[in-house]
Amino acid sequence: MGKEDPKVSKPDNTAFTQQRLPAWQPILSAGIVLPLFVVIGLTFIGIGIGLFITSSNVQEIEGPVFMYYGLTNYYQNYRKYGISRDDDQLFGNIDSLKSPANFCSPYQMGAKQMPIAPCGAIANSLFNDTFRLFYKVNEVYTEVLLDDNGISWWTDYNVKFRNPPEINGSLKNAFEGTVKPLNWPKPVYELSTNPNNNGFINQDFLVWMRIAALPNFRKLYRRISEGNWSRSLPAGNYSLEITYNYPVLSFQGKKKVVFSTVTWMGGKNSFLGIAYLVFGSLSIVMALIMLIVYAKYQVQIDRDM
Amino acid sequence: MFTDFLSFMVLFNFIIPVSMYVTVEMQKFLGSFFISWDKDFFDPEIQEGALVNTSDLNEELGQVEYVFTDKTGTLTQNNMEFIECCIDGYQYNYRDSRTELDGFCVSDGPVSKLQEKAGKGKSQKRSAVEKSINAFLIVYLCILISKALVCTTLKYVWQSHPGHDEPWYNQKTQKEKDTNKFLKMFTDFLSFMVLFNFIIPVSMYVTVEMQKFLGSFFISWDKDFFDPEIQEGALVNTSDLNEELGQVEYVFTDKTGTLTQNNMEFIECCIDGYQYNYRDSRTELDGFCVSDGPVSKLQEKAGKEKEELFLRALCLCHTVQVKEGTELHGMDEVDGIGASDDAEQCCYIASSPDEVALVKGAKKYGFMFLGMEGKHMKMQNRNKDVEQYELLHVLDFDPVRRRMSVIVKTKSGETLLFCKGADSSVFPRVQAEEVERIRMHVERNAMEGYRTLCVAYKSLSSEEFEQTDAALQDARLALQDREERLAQVYDQVEAGMHLIGATAVEDRLQEEAAETMEALHGAGMKVWVLTGDKMETAKSTCYACRLFLKSTELLELTVRTLEEGDRPREEKLHELLLDYHKRAVQDRHKDKDKEGVTRSWSSGFREFGFIVDGATLSLVLNASPDASASRYKSLFLQICQNCTAVLCCRMAPLQKAQIVKMVKNSKGSPITLSIGVKGKEGRQAVRNSDYAIPKLKHLKKLLLVQYFFYKPLYDAAYLTMYNICFTSMPIVAYSLLEQHICIESLLENSSLYRGIAKNAMLRWGPFLYWTLLGLFEGLVFFFGVYQLFWNPALADNGQVFGNWTFGTIVFTVLVFTVTLKEGRQAVRNSDYAIPKLKHLKKLLLVHGHLYYVRIAHLVQYFFYKNLCFILPQFLYQFFCGFSQQPLYDAAYLTMYNICFTSMPIVAYSLLEQHICIESLLENASLYRGIAKNAMLRWGPFLYWTLLGLFEGLVFFFGVYQLFWNPALADNGQVFGNWTFGTIVFTVLVFTVTLKLAMDTRHWTWVNHFVIWGSLAFYIFFSFFWGGIIWPFMQQQRLYFVFANMLSSVSAWLIVILLIVVSLLPDIVIGVFRQPQGPDRQQSASVTPLSYKRFKELD
């Protein structure tokens, strides 16, 4: 009866088994929480002021100016739309080029069952309005040079998207046996005359392929970073020439063009600054309330003791 | 190469039959019902069928090779059929009167034997935590379904706007256009369900199980429970009910062996009215010391003849054996008590320690029992002569008769009957004038808490003896009603005896029994002592244990109080019940109202103790079946519930069960704990004998296992895990209903059992066969049906492939768990065994408390973290045209519960000590703070849910506002939807983990490791996941998303802001929820401030 091997039945006397591991036992008391709130509040107000000022400064057109186009009521994040692409094809995979993924349907195969390159709804609906900006000095319009370099993610341009291997030094041959997307006026290998900006690695294409998070969005169109314009856009009269190709009225959408500078925190967005300010002040107020309550409470304890 | 390897692993992982575990569990659980439903096991005598206490071992029954059985009670007393053995485990318990010592092991558990008998309704045994989880689960299921419904409805509302349904840039395929609208709606609904299904914390079940399993080790590891005497620590037989230990409201305890050590010592005896007080026999002349008892005649002794007769009776009237005996008598379950004697080098073994104590007592007075020789009992008298008596009959002890007798023949040919038993059963059978001389002694001894026995004898004439002998033989051979007939004969024989004396045996209290009981009291538990002893004995024990205090007002409801006055018992009972009810229930409530919260112990707050005895109890419970009966019962119950301690004495074993049942069934079904003495092996035996008809079960299980290994082979070829629903039901049905050989032939032809012996159907041979079959069919299936099976519609769903896989498992698990969990808890046989009663204090106050807090926090936390996980995904549907676009990447969806947030909560649930162990032990009233499932009620649940809601809203709309201008990088580039999701997810993981960190009061290195490790792992994983173009993935959604996100200062700022915004309200509420006023500081022990203050007070 119960006379087992003592070695087996006797519990180990270790800190773990006895639940006596050395432990740090932090206590969230009002004495800690109060200063914490004050510190957080002050820090946040500080950050908030910084952010707010930075964000306000964006309006002044100084430094390189960025040109965005915006669309509203446009659901790039619609699931069916978002999956309608073949990343293998865009990676330059020849097999996928010739037989795009089923996700691309109904933009998978074109006429005569020829594969579409690039396939899918996203590529098919590539934004194709073009803009030219002119600066008017003494009734003379000077075209502002728009730089389409570096408007897409570095990794997209260099890794994630690749043209299929050229055949006989020609990109056109590489796309032999495919057709252009239905809505495109010209095939993918004629998107640009610059060979480093053509085919699947066309920067406009890359920007469009990174689908937007929300139905009202903006995408980077060009950077104004060349020549005299790289410092800033001087005050004056400008004229924007728009080649209107992209239909938006059918879905009650709107288009817009935004010129903006950017700072270390990106484009203009006052939300972050305001949020920091509001929350910082809130925690200061909270700290005050707690101070009052705590003081009262402390008095009560002292009286009771 | 590595990525290829990984991708193939993923592709083929379905070959591991994960769902098999679920199905096997289900099969076991449901299958075990067939055992309890089998009417062949129904015994009309006890009105009970087979009882299945565990479903885990069904299939083991088909593998039994050795059968261990006890003779007494298993093979002899009951029917000789072997199958009876199965229910005998039950019957055994049933008869087991707890007055016997089977071992030093005090075992207890919410579902101990008493309750097994009492709680017929299985659902009663479900742990309160499980009940809460199921309730919460239903709420979350409703949330899930309503979310899916809302989204589906709004989707069609949204689509009715022109330009929304099919804009030019996103046209439908021909197939989509052709699909029936209602079918589409239905698929939409299902898709939303899949999208949101993560709100159901499936992994919680795994975590809870893990926590319980690992957590239970802490009990068996606890060295405080180690008893050097028996070289054993606590034994945990179940891990399911750990947290229930923190919820106990009623403690039922047996007196003998539980409160007391059951280590009997002979204290004194009284022969013919003269008291003999044994002090130290060896120094005295003849082993006698005469004490001046209040009633005994000073310095006088009983006649020598009487004295010797008494001592001979003590020596003869027992079932004690000398030496290590293999056969044990009486009601002994497994082991008896051995008492070795140094001088004589012999050892007495008996089922009851009383007997040993008496025999040893007689030895001290010079009469020594030497053992049996054939049918002769040998004993040595004072003159060192060996006397021999022929043992003719033993009239066994049983708890109903409360006495035993032997019939012996002396050398001179005289036939004598010696009888010993409780005073109540002996006094009516002897001459009245003899009783008067003894009674006072007996009563005085009882008052002192000694166990008393009376000894009587009778000399039988030869005719008388022959008559008795014949009757006894006749009765023993009877096939029907053997027991009743035996009892009748016993009754006839044991009449007209002469009382010679009484003995008093002391049963010492368990170590620290009083402290333990006091602690239980302080913890707000109500202690019920159920005993078969005399009221006086029991009462004095209760005082000694501090169950009754001096200030306790005793309410007595016994035969004695009932018989005061001349009125009939029923009337008196009614009157007393009403009176007590008024005092204990109504007045007390009035007191409470008057004094409010500031009531103190001295001012009118009375503690009540309630004493009831068996006879009265049966009067209450089994009163004539009119309306008053139920009224008595409810009155009785109400009185009991308002008393801090209840003593039930003179209880028959069945009544003990009745009492427990009654309390369990009372309002709110409180959690009860029964303590009793049990031998470990005995329990094991019970456990193993819980089944019948074994082989059928076995075959079922085994075919199931095979089938599952075989099935996924071709499933894996096509990765459609949602087939699981269609293929699982047939095998479940098969596993439950299949009888490949009919039951009758199985029963008749026992050699069939050999066919499955030694796990025959689960060996490598059959396994190989099934595997080959699977391979073959897999090949045929794959290459033959490949083209046909390729369904673009299916592939289309592959977009949410990660979801589908998980989602279907979820649904399967979900449906099963809801049903499964409930029952599985119920059928578990559970036991905790601790060596000594004093350990109960730590078990309940420390382990129980900690487990409860841990598991309650775990459950709430899981619901909370899944809510704030999935809420942003729900909100996102409003901004993506209700298109089921997932906010998070599939990898994040799957990993969230499995990797990123699971380890910290596991560590928390194992290691957390929100109050240190010492304080818990010292301050028993802390236990009240968690009473009645306080942490898993709707209030806290609502709080956590609101917190989850708030945080989900903050996460989503915070990032949403930021994405008003998605140009977040300092180079003007814009971020897309996956960055949006990743920011939300990052905030989520950090907030949820830090929330847990804030709740952790006990930071060991393990906590540090897992909390900071999880966060580090999340960052590492995100880099890793986004750092590679994964070859097997159709879409490279997250490629460099995380790294790019980190390059944006705005993203950093929003992450920090949202984490702080989400966490601070919880801190504020925590601080403000601090107790106001000094009297509540201990009850609200879980809030941060009170903890500190509590420490300060220490």
UniProtKB/TrEMBL annotation, chain A:
Keyword Transmembrane helix part of the UniProt annotation: yes
Superkingdom of this protein's organism: Eukaryota
UniProt keyword annotation of Transmembrane present: yes
Annotated GO CC locations: endoplasmic reticulum; Golgi apparatus; plasma membrane
UniProt xrefs under InterPro entries: CDC50/LEM3_fam
Record keywords, A-Z: Membrane, Transmembrane, Transmembrane helix
Annotated TM spans: 27-53, 274-295
Location(s), subcellular: Membrane
One Pfam family in the UniProt entry: CDC50
GO biological process, one term: phospholipid translocation
Similarity comment: family membership: Belongs to the CDC50/LEM3 family.
Name of the protein in its database record: Cell cycle control protein
Protein's organism: Acipenser ruthenus (Sterlet sturgeon)
Lineage summary: Eukaryota, Metazoa, Chordata, Craniata, Vertebrata
From TrEMBL, chain B:
EC number, UniProt record: 7.6.2.1
Residues that bind Mg(2+): 254, 256
Name under which the protein is recorded: Phospholipid-transporting ATPase
UniProt-listed GO biological process terms: phospholipid translocation
Annotated catalytic residues: 254
Record's keyword terms, sorted: ATP-binding, Magnesium, Membrane, Metal-binding, Nucleotide-binding, Translocase, Transmembrane, Transmembrane helix
Organism: Acipenser ruthenus
Listed transmembrane segments: 6-24, 135-158, 189-208, 767-789, 801-820, 941-963, 975-997, 1009-1030, 1050-1072
Any one GO molecular function term: ATPase-coupled intramembrane lipid transporter activity
One GO location term (cellular component): endoplasmic reticulum
InterPro entries xref list: ATPase_P-typ_cyto_dom_N, ATPase_P-typ_P_site, ATPase_P-typ_TM_dom_sf, HAD-like_sf, HAD_sf, P-type_ATPase_IV, P_typ_ATPase, P_typ_ATPase_c
Keyword Zinc-finger carried by entry: no
Location of this chain's protein in the cell: Membrane
Catalytic activity: ATP + H2O + phospholipidSide 1 = ADP + phosphate + phospholipidSide 2
Domain P-type ATPase C-terminal: start-end pairs: 711-821, 827-1074
Annotated residues for binding of ATP: 254-256, 355, 397, 420, 451, 531-533, 650, 656
PROSITE patterns: ATPASE_E1_E2 (PS00154)
Membrane topology: Multi-pass membrane protein
Cofactor(s) for this UniProt protein: Mg(2+)
Family, similarity comment: Belongs to the cation transport ATPase (P-type) (TC 3.A.3) family. Type IV subfamily.
PANTHER family per record: PHOSPHOLIPID-TRANSPORTING ATPASE IG, PROBABLE PHOSPHOLIPID-TRANSPORTING ATPASE
